[in-house]
Amino acid sequence: MAALLALATAVFITSLTETLPAGVLPEMSGSLHVGESAAGQAVTVYAAGTALTAIPLTAATAGWRRKRLLLTAMAGFAAANTVTAVSSDYALTLIARFVAGVAAGLAWALLAGYARRMAPAHLQGKAVAVAMAGIPVALSLGVPAGTFAGQALGWRVAFLAMTGLALVLLGWITATVPDYPGQRSQERPRMLRTLAVPGVAPVLFVTLAFVLAHTVIYAYIATFLDHIGMGGSTDLVLLVFGIASLVSIWFTGAHIDRRLRTLTISSVLLVGAAAAVLGIPSHSDVPVYLAALLWGLGWGGLPTLLQTAAADAGGDSADAAQAMLVTLWNVAMAAGGIIGGVLLDALGATSLPWSVLLLLVPTFIAVVGARVRGFPAERPGTAG
């Protein structure tokens, strides 16, 4: 468990490093002397760094011992967050964010498989859920705390705190996480061939569409809330979202081995309901908090669901499927930052929730249609 919690902390660092700008966007834009849509590209370039490098770096480092690779990735986060914290130059900040994204590409392609190797087959879903718990913890505690720190002490303090945590984690990993060998050259999967494996393509499409829908609004949530008169409540809204995400991943971990399909369909419907609530004008703050609750319940368990579905569908090519999922996840993050910025400038903040609903329609169709391979009613090896 100590080793799995170290992995969860690594997930926490990658998640918080990725999403923290969303909570401090106005402060970052003012400090760097750029508009909020330009500051939002700090999320985009991070995702682009991961999307462009996850597959080639996963292939290039497939022979590395796993612990060495994990330590390298965490050291990359420490360096990138330090530069982000001290930079006053917009271009240098984007370069640092890109490097952080490269480190994320290494980490994300590694972490789910690492957790699965620590557990027997019948507990692998729960092991992945423990490791992925870093995501809702980052959202429920990290982003609101970072948002508060950004408003009270300056956004740079939050990034320096991330550096300190990464340095602590390097020692934790060294002391507790077991090492595993990499793959021999003849065992390394071929990425393109993995797309032909039944069930992999639908999982990857759902990843792309769902994460795109989420990021279009999440990257600009502070700006959206400011538009509707709740700019001072960004940290509280994110806290509700994060706590609901924590509940979601706990529930997902408890039921994923038997109900992966049902949980994935429910995730799409819950996030869709949240977007609809946000899209309807209201003079009360209550619907916004309700939407944050629904959104968190739908989103929190999604990384575990998609990574488990990809690994199950991939079979012997699970590592390749994971690397492709990580790549598409971050392509969606990058595209979401760009598309959200365009919508914000062209149509205003109120267009963001409706774009989420539009993207979730094909997502829902893909999940429902992949009833045999991809999102089956029963996971392989759990029947009976």
Architecture blueprint of SSEs:
Elements: H1 2-23, H2 25-32, H3 36-39, H4 41-60, H5 66-86, H6 90-117, H7 124-132, H8 134-152, H9 155-176, H10 191-194, H11 200-218, H12 221-227, H13 234-279, H14 286-299, H15 302-314, H16 318-346, H17 351-369
What does this structure look like?
It is a single chain. The chain is mainly alpha-helical and 384 residues long. Helices cover 79% and strands 0% of the residues. The chain is built from 17 helices and no strands. α1 (2-23) packs antiparallel against α6, α11 runs antiparallel to α15 (302-314) and α13 (234-279) packs across α17 (351-369). The chain crosses the membrane at residues 43-62, 69-88, 94-115, 127-147, 153-175, 195-221, 227-251, 263-282, 288-311, 323-346, 352-370. Pfam families: MFS_1.
Quick structural overview:
By secondary structure, this protein is mainly α. It has one domain (about 1-370): Up-down Bundle (Growth Hormone, Chain: A), CATH 1.20.1250.20.
